[in-house]
Amino acid sequence: MTTQTPQIEKITEFLYQEADLLDQNDLGSWIDLYTDEGTYWMPVERDQVDPLNHISIFYDDKPMMQIRKHNLIHKRAPSKEIEIRSSHLIGNVKIKSYDEKTGLCTVTSNFQAIVYYGEQTLFAGTYQHDLLIKNGGIQIQQKKVVLINCDASHGTIISYI
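The structure assignment produced for this chain is given below.
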């Protein structure tokens, strides 16, 4: 581990770009932000240590993300009946660690997301992005979404937050 870290402004702009793609329902471009081994994880407990030995709300690898995208945009999908609308706010972005040798950078942030799909739902919590920074580019290795009420009962979460 080194003390030299990437510019926080560049990382923050990347997180804003990711949120914007979700707000535009551009799941294809959003999925492209992930490495081939990238994962999206939403644990069911605040201090859940891993997604493989415990139940999670979401734990998708890139192929599963592609399947969800296909199911959401398919012309006969029930999700086509109502447009999914969302608005994401991100703040308090912090670089927690950076390994210059591997390019792996762990970033945390707070978020609020309002999602409308027949009714309006507010989600809030923290993101942890494990980002791969190489050759001037940034990709997501893993995005962990910890909802404030992750251990509560939820209705259907129709899209990524």
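Interim note for the steering committee: The domain at 8-147 is CATH 3.10.450.50 (Nuclear Transport Factor 2; Chain: A,). Residues 8-23 form the longest helix (16 residues).
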